[in-house]
Amino acid sequence: MKNLLLTGASGNIGQAIAQLFLSKGYKVTAPTRQELDLCDPQNIDNYFNQHSLEYLAFIHCAGYNTLYSLEALKLCELQKTLQINTLSFFQILSYLIPFFKQKKKGYVLGISSLYGTIAREERASYVMSKHAMNGLMQTACLELGSYNIKVNTLSPGFVDTQMTRKNNSLEKIQNLQTKIPLKRLGSVEDIANIAYMLCSEQNTYISGQNIIVDGGFMAGGFQK
């Protein structure tokens, strides 16, 4: 059985990833927040000490994002963002590495962001967490490649999700679409398709890469 461990499955992108892998014959393990609290390192330890580690692939889709200026950002908020977005990714991966090494096969994918390669005001905690995720991915690629473990990140651009619709007016979304070369927001299926390619038998030689899926938005430089 091909097994996928997926965090963040309750979000729109996570749901699409889960549905696609299920349709391809995978067993998808998607712990709820009550089962696996990514804010609590001890809870993460407890979960993986009590559950099977026999996975072919691991996708970290869980994420947390808030807006604060540097002056307003509190250390506790920064720590929470880093814990959910990056430190839990590392902690879970550390449990899976021995099994992947034993099988000499594994796929690891972190769902990153455009803010993993650039920055923007009032997003210090999120930017730090995603830059760190990409750095961890590249380091893991170098250390694990000889065991046939492929490690990548995927950075979505602006995707049509409930959160996007909630946080942006229709006028703002329409204006944003004019700045995307493909003239539309990404769909959750666009993201899920690339996630599947990177974490399935389709991926034979991609590792250490941050795959940007943004409809060409970053090709002209980030535009406000």
TrEMBL record:
SUPFAM superfamilies given in the database record: NAD(P)-binding Rossmann-fold domains (SSF51735)
InterPro entries named in the record: NAD(P)-bd_dom_sf, Sc_DH/Rdtase_CS, SDR_fam
Protein name: 3-oxoacyl-[acyl-carrier protein] reductase
Stretches that traverse the bilayer: none
GO MF annotations in UniProt: oxidoreductase activity, acting on the CH-OH group of donors, NAD or NADP as acceptor
Organism: Brevinema andersonii
A Pfam family the protein falls into: adh_short_C2
Highest taxon of the lineage: Bacteria
GO-annotated biological processes: fatty acid elongation
Family: Belongs to the short-chain dehydrogenases/reductases (SDR) family.
